[in-house]
């Protein structure tokens, strides 16, 4: 998958404050490479999954940081920081070969010293599944 332009662009961190509730769009589809789950397991010192095992939930969670720049761009900042996560749920498994994408909504934005903190609800969808593989309340800080 090639890099693409963010679906939603904010010209400044202050624009986030008035955009709470805004849908940020949907990313393109991503099909993790066949060895991605094994590589992830090796990097995290976890047991190697069998080829037919579901993709590890924490790998799905980590993909939200890969998807976020496709969903959201904030201009006029000195830096954007992954500030952590609040609630995370894993509803449906994703398997090797599944196509994944994310969709997001800006659910909160508050002023903090030096910038704005946002909560973006990111849902990682599995093509054809009725429930998302992962839903995370992702926290970011956008510093002026």
Key structural traits:
144 residues; alpha+beta; Thiol Ester Dehydrase, Chain A; 5-stranded antiparallel beta sheet; two-stranded parallel sheet; 3 helices; 19% helix; 39% strand; elongated
| CATH topology title | Thiol Ester Dehydrase, Chain A
Number of domains: 1
Please state the CA-atom Rg, rounded to the nearest Å: 16 Å
Let me know the average pLDDT: 92
Query: Could you estimate the helical fraction of the residues in percent?
Result: 10-25%
Amount of beta strand: 35-45%
Largest sheet: 5 strands, antiparallel
Helix-strand pattern, N to C? EHEHHEEEEE
Helical/strand content category: alpha+beta
Secondary structure tally: strands: 7
Give the N-terminus to C-terminus distance in angstroms: 31 Å
Strand order of the largest sheet: 2-5-6-7-4
Low-confidence stretches: none
Number of distinct helices: 3
CATH architecture label name: Roll
Can you tell me the overall shape? elongated
Q: What is the name of the CATH class?
A: Alpha Beta
The CATH homologous superfamily is named Hotdog Thioesterase
């Amino acid at each position: 998958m090639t890099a693409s332009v963010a679906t939603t662009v904010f010209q400044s961190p202050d624009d986030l404050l008035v955009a709470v509730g805004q849908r940020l769009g949907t990313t393109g589809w991503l099909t993790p490479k066949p060895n991605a789950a094994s590589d992830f397991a090796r990097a995290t010192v976890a047991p190697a999954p069998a080829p037919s095992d579901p993709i590890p939930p924490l790998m799905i969670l980590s993909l939200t940081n890969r998807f976020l720049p496709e969903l959201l761009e904030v201009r006029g900042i000195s830096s954007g920081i992954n500030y952590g996560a609040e609630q995370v749920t894993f509803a449906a498994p994703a398997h090797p070969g599944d196509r994944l994408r994310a969709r997001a909504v800006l659910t909160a934005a508050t002023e903090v010293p030096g910038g704005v903190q946002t909560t973006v609800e990111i849902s990682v969808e599995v093509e054809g599944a009725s429930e998302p593989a992962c839903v995370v309340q992702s926290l970011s800080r956008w510093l002026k």
